[in-house]
Design brief:
Elements: H1 5-23, H2 52-120, H3 126-131, H4 136-207, H5 211-234, H6 237-240, H7 247-258, H8 276-286, H9 295-301, E1 303-305, E2 315-318, E3 324-330, E4 333-336, E5 345-348, E6 354-359
Antiparallel strand pairs: 1-6, 2-3, 2-6, 3-4, 4-5
Length: 362
């Protein structure tokens, strides 16, 4: 063991924690994560081994960093989705403006033609020429034409006015969408910066560990997940869960499990890598049931079901701020994309704090 290893890790935990707080953007994206246990601060004598207590402090800090990265990833994904929608709206408005301008051109041409016709008749309106007519029958026949002409003129003016008003509204809407798009870009950039900061801090902390310490840390993570899953199963909840997957749910499950082994990448929607909500949204898209892109919006928008009523294909939302999502497979198991540095994998449904369950094809 290197000299002062335990003190080095303790210092790294403290410093990285402070850096992560100072570097975080001013705008909050979701509820803050629970505060982890304080890291060890005492510097032991040289040669003192890193204890399980030290590694537990590291694990708690890593969990907090990756949790914050997940929250920021959701914010990034939400901003990205909004940007796509706003861009599509701007394109649609641009088409409407082009169509409106062409319509306005045609209407002005019609108005110009009418003005030219009036000029050719010495500028006399139809009513005047009608009154001056010496032919009674022509007078009667022309009455209908005069009324039709009056209605056509009023309609032309009204249509010109509406078209001009529509064009102004389209232009105003496009300007508003551009403003929103720019604000969304700034939000996305801030979220991206926070994701990268949190992940970099976590990676820096992990880099302080030697290989055998990383192995011990992984064992501690597995133990914590196993204990949480065991406690969840010991509650007897699995005895109540016997739902069968819908046909769409079976397709979603097949898609999600086929991605096992592919790496986690924040903001990714496949096919080579995924983040947690990228996996679940793409799985359900493959089943013909589009769902919101982020775990938080999946929690907000999809139908909630009781845990005892969940069935394979349902989505389990984790943590109080809905910052993680997994797909339930049945028999107490889930498939999910955990966090940076990990791959899409199977896990216990109770291995993380469950917020609730949602059903995409309710």
């Amino acid at each position: 063991m290197g000299t002062g290893k335990r003190g080095l890790i303790a210092t790294a935990v403290t410093v990285i924690g402070a850096v992560a707080v100072l570097a975080a953007p001013a705008t909050a994206f979701a509820a803050p994560s629970p505060t982890p246990p304080p890291p060890p601060t005492a510097s032991p004598t040289p040669g003192t081994p890193v204890t399980n207590k030290d590694l537990e402090a590291v694990r708690a800090r890593l969990d907090a960093l990756y949790h914050d990265a997940a929250v920021a990833t959701d914010a990034y994904n939400a901003a990205e989705e909004k940007a796509r929608q706003q861009s599509a709206q701007i394109v649609a408005l641009a088409k409407k403006i082009a169509q409106g301008q062409e319509k306005l051109r045609r209407l002005k041409a019609r108005a110009g033609a009418a003005a030219a016709a009036q000029y050719r008749t010495n500028g006399l309106p139809d009513e005047a020429r009608l009154i001056l007519s010496d032919n009674p029958q022509e007078f009667l026949d022309a009455t209908g034409r005069v009324l039709q002409g009056q209605r056509a003129t009023k309609a032309l003016i009204a249509e010109l006015t509406r078209t001009q008003q529509d064009l102004k509204q389209y232009a105003d809407d496009a300007s508003a969408q551009w403003t929103k798009l720019e604000a969304g870009r700034k939000a996305k950039a801030a979220a991206k910066k926070k994701v990268e900061q949190q992940i970099a801090a976590a990676e820096q902390l992990e880099s302080q560990l030697e290989e055998r310490e990383k192995e011990r840390l992984a064992e501690l993570e597995e133990q914590a997940a196993h204990q949480a899953q065991s406690a969840w199963l010991d509650s007897g909840i699995l005895d109540e869960i016997d739902g069968k997957a819908s046909e769409a749910g079976k397709i979603a499950v097949r898609y999600a499990t086929a991605q096992i082994g592919k790496p986690y990448e924040w903001g990714a929607e496949g096919p080579d890598s995924y983040d947690c909500s990228g996996l679940t949204s793409q799985a359900w898209a493959s089943a013909g049931k589009p769902v919101p892109r982020t775990s938080q919006e999946q929690w907000k928008q999809l139908k909630h079901v009781d845990i005892k009523d969940m069935r394979p294909g349902d989505l389990i939302i984790y943590f109080d701020d809905a910052s993680h999502v997994a797909m339930y497979l049945g028999e107490g198991a889930i498939v999910h994309a955990p966090r940076p540095g990990r791959t899409v994998t199977l896990a216990g449904a109770g291995s993380m704090p469950i917020l609730g369950v949602v059903r995409p094809d309710a």
